Amino acid sequence: MDRISLQDRARQVLTALREQRIDAALHAARVLLADYPDDESALSLCASCEQQAGNHDLAAVLFARLTQAHPRTWQYWNNLGNAQRALGQVEHARLAFERALELNPAAPRVRTNLGLLLLNAGNPAQAATHLRAASAAPDAEPGMRIWAAVAAHAAGDAVTAEELVRGWEHWPRDSDEAWLELGWLLLELGHFDDAEHVFASAFAGVAARIRAKARHALLLERINQPDAAERLLADLPDPDQIAAAEARQELLHARGILAARRKDWPAARQALQQALAIAGSTRGRAAMYFALARACDRLGDVDATLAVLREAHALLAATSAQRTIHERWLPVLTTGLPAAETAYSQRAPAPSAAQSPVFVLGFPRSGTTLLEQMLAAHPDFASIDERPLVLSAIRRMQALGIAYPQGLGALRAEQIEDLRAGYWRAADALATRAPGQRLVDKNPLNMLALPMILRLFPLARVVICRRHPCDVVLSCYMQPFADPEVAEMSASPASLARAYAAFDAQFREQAALLGATPFELRYEDLVTHPQAALQGLGNCLGVLDTTAMAHFASSAQQRGYISTPSYAQVVESLRADSIGRWRRYARVFAPLLPTLAESIRQAGYTTD
């Protein structure tokens, strides 16, 4: 056979590849390589065909031969890295990409590949460095900016992520994979209409279309439209019939979440277990583990629940270790308040209770979201979901060079007024209040910010939500909190118990120092005797008719997106099955009870 024949046959392979006739291209390439076993072009063509056919193990062998024969050709190292990445050989792939970068430091595609490898291996901080560099290259493709934004967000930098995808609607669409990630990133950034637009758009590949529908369904479920999500998935094939692993996994994930939403816990467990059995990226697996743990818990399988939660938290911890926490609040909020600095609570003019927000406080999972939705259902109140308005006021105070909380008493009247005005500017940008409506400010971390609340609004009504501390700890342990500081303290039941006891003690101490009398609302009373509990709340807030609050579920349903883990519960009727759930996990709580004993006693609970 002569050289002309080889070139003609190589062109035939390339033509078949361009026409997406993968099987024909692969067959021709294998025959060509058998005839020319040491030819560089035959090796390269066959390796590329094997990779496109999904035969990554064979592709890796061929690309390895090419790197040995042509060690200074960066493209072969890059392709070898891609094949090894597909095989899950993370360390080998990393070395191959790094060698390609040594040979061609200016290649944005290699940086992108290395960044994606690190991102999917759970190292978003290093991934972000490479992906930002790739996205800044003169010949960078839009997909590179998307991946850089995804890595920035995974590393805890939502601001940079927003900046990187600004103007996305004007970009050419160069990759189904990048567009799928763009849609999910927009969802996580809270741009739900934009995310839905992306997922509903046309995707070229069959697998990409399935993944887009699965992600679209998860979005609809997240904004409390589970029926629409079910309809969206109705025409998709059975997961067993889907060859592409990622598409099969994402469809199983979506079906598991929707099964849980309709309380079909066996189906949820089965789908999520099948999804997790598929090997792949570590990114996103923690969320599936947490969902599986909830299904196991609802089925009464305590041992399985605890085992799955250990897996979930291990994955979450590995990812969180790579996140940059740009603003740590807890060291500031847990600073002690000197008794000598509380005299300000007895002086200074202030807005009336009617002119002040209603502050809803409480440890996460204490019923704060439920109460917020009840208040939001009443025409006298407007809610803004969970926003750091008080925390931002503390930052502005610190920017004045005044320490928090020690310097609260030193604030001059005009400084207080300025901080209060800043609070209202931020609030008004988030919610439109009708004349006479009062703002509901709900943020669990505000239970540590009582001194600032009462400095700005001394006459404000403050409601502290109470729930049995053991139920709170269990519920928190079962949540994949987005806030990195809350996620850190939720890593184990023991760390949660310590945090609960410390936060509760600080709140009680500061309330006593400030002479405050917050209204205590017990979750158990709200669930089992809602009319009486709401009447007591109404008396505190000066609301005569609390009937509208009892219809919170329909109001929350109309609201759509609710940022907290309780988003699915607060669109349902009140249920008492979450009361006392901790008792099934008594062996876990036995060593924690001494830590929680004082909080349990102070709130009037028992462990009997």
From TrEMBL:
TPR repeats lie at residues 74-107. Gene3D superfamilies: P-loop containing nucleotide triphosphate hydrolases, Tetratricopeptide repeat domain. It comes from the Bacteria. PROSITE patterns: TPR. Pfam families: Sulfotransfer_3, TPR_1, TPR_16. The keyword Cytoplasm does not apply. Keywords: TPR repeat, Transferase. This is Sulfotransferase.
